[in-house]
Amino acid sequence: MASQDVGTVIVGAGIAGIAAAYYLCIEQQQKSVLLIDSRKPMSFTSAQSGDNYRNWWPHRTMTDFTNDSIDELDRIARDSKNVFNMTRRGYVLATRQPDVKAVVCAIPGDIDVDVYDNKKAIRQKFPALATDINNVIHIRRGGDISGQQLGQYMLERFREAGGKRLPGELVAIDVGSRYQLDMNTAAGNTVITADVLVNAAGPFVSRIAGMLGVELPVKNIYQQKIAFQDHRNAVPRDMPFSIDLDTKFLEWSEEERELLAEDPELRSLAEEMPPGTHCRPDGGPHGQWVKLGWAYNEQPGNPQEDMANEPAIDQSFPEIVLRGAAQLIPALQPYVVTLPRRFSHYGGYYTMTEENWPLIGPLDDKAAFVIGALSGFGSMGACAAGRLCAAHICGGPFPGYAADLSLDRLTNVELLAELRTAASKGLL
User: Fold this and answer.
1) How far apart are CA 350 and CA 255, in angstroms?
2) CA dihedral in degrees (260, 262, 264, 267; nearest 10)?
3) Beta bridge partners of residue 9, listed in sequence order
4) Domain boundaries, the chain
5) Are 145 and 79 in contact (CB under 8 A)?
6) Residue in 36, 19, 362, 16 with CA at minimum distance from that of residue 216
7) Would you put residue 396 in left (φ > 0), alpha (ψ -120 to 50) or beta?
């Protein structure tokens, strides 16, 4: 039986685990960090990312958190000559409502926004949007990145700083004076002994916490997206990430609506659907692909080890999301009639707390830490999350939101009550 002795072991090589490893080695200058996972880096949930970022959130804590993360994305983009293709087209929030004062007032005052409340101005600035859109809020500090390239860049810097990787399946954890991890690897059984353990296991974060005797208040909800070749050029290549803020009824024939209403599993598709349909061009100014998403699923599930065989994949989703998106971008309507010739249908789990805030900080009373529940904001929040996790391990310094994003908030009854009754949780 092989064995290794390390300072810190990080369980999970998705974007969260890689970011924690990066900041431990690069910023905190730790010399003995091991990253373990049974899969290749960035190949599970992180591979399903929408790769968008924004500092628009309905609460100051999350705004500050993502602002810090975007600051780091900007820095890394400069240092790497923008190897991960960071753009800054912003976010468009579109609505048919005649008044958006309530939405604007909910945005923290230092977020740069432009409000368009004139249909002629909206048509000139955002010509792809439906003509019944009455108001547009343009969040300036937003855009997209290549999460895979960001993760690869961090991983390379981690390796250069002396960090190590070990592919293998974690079987058990024994907690004594140190942490002992039993693993199955290509070389056989391996025991890792570590002073510090970081749980960055994505959708399996609860499972790893359970090995330490800790229960985490998280759930996994499967959300889907599609990407397709826009051979009709329905979506302008310079269009910002655009979100429909309105609930909607999908356009069905009377016969289709009756059939849907008769099926308990499909009935909701004939009823009022939630807001949040979103769309953006993908692949740069000279590309032809488009991404669509709509996080309307609300049913928790258990993640599968093999995402390719995920039973939660809904084969009707491409048609549903296209029907919803066509109400925001009418030029997509022909794709509802005939699905795109080339498209990719994929999905991943949003691992989230009830309030949709991450959990970053101490996990037990020894030296275990968690960086998880990054829901649909893993790529955009990875830098701040990894940096904060590294700070917890090394004793600071801490940003003002550190306590709110740790397990400590579970004892803050007033804060939790505020968050759980909020009109929006920032979920997209």
Assistant:
1) 34
2) 30
3) 34, 197
4) 2-81+147-218+354-420, 220-350
5) no
6) 362
7) left
Q: Which CATH class is domain 2-81+147-218+354-420?
A: alpha beta
Q: Do 243 and 278 form a contact (C-beta atoms < 8 A)?
A: yes
- Separation CA 410–CA 216 (nearest Å): 10
CA–CA separation, 191 vs 173, rounded Å? 10
What are the two backbone dihedrals, phi and then psi, of residue 92, each rounded to the nearest 5 degrees?
-110, 125
Cβ neighbours around 95 below 10 Å, total: 19
- With beta carbons less than 8 A apart as the criterion, state whether 218 and 358 touch: no
Cβ-in-10-Å burial (0-12, 13-18, 19+) of 373 comes to: buried
pLDDT band at 105 (very low <50, low <70, confident <90, very high): confident
Local confidence band at 102 (pLDDT 50, 70, 90 cut-offs): confident
Residue 76: Cβ within 10 Å count: 20
Distances (CA, A) of 362 to 142, 186, 374, 396, 406: 30, 31, 16, 13, 7
pTM comes to 0.96
> Residue 426: what pLDDT?
87
Provide the 3-class DSSP secondary structure of residue 348. strand
Query: pLDDT averaged over the chain?
Result: 95
The whole-angstrom separation of Cα 374 and Cα 86 is 20
Q: Which long-range contacts (CB under 8 A, 24 or more apart) does 338-344 make?
A: 340/228, 340/229, 340/230, 340/231, 341/229, 341/231, 342/228, 342/229, 343/226, 343/227, 343/228, 343/229, 343/318, 344/226, 344/227, 344/228
158-191 burial, b at 16+ Cβ within 10 Å, e below that, comes to beebebebbebebeebeeeeebbbbbeeeeeebe
Q: Find the mean pLDDT for residues 194-205.
A: 98
| Amino acid occupying residue 266 | L
Residue 154, pLDDT score:
98
- Which residues have CB under 8 Å from 94's CB, separation 6+? 126, 129, 133, 135, 136, 242, 243, 244, 245, 328
DSSP 8-state secondary structure symbol assigned to residue 131? T
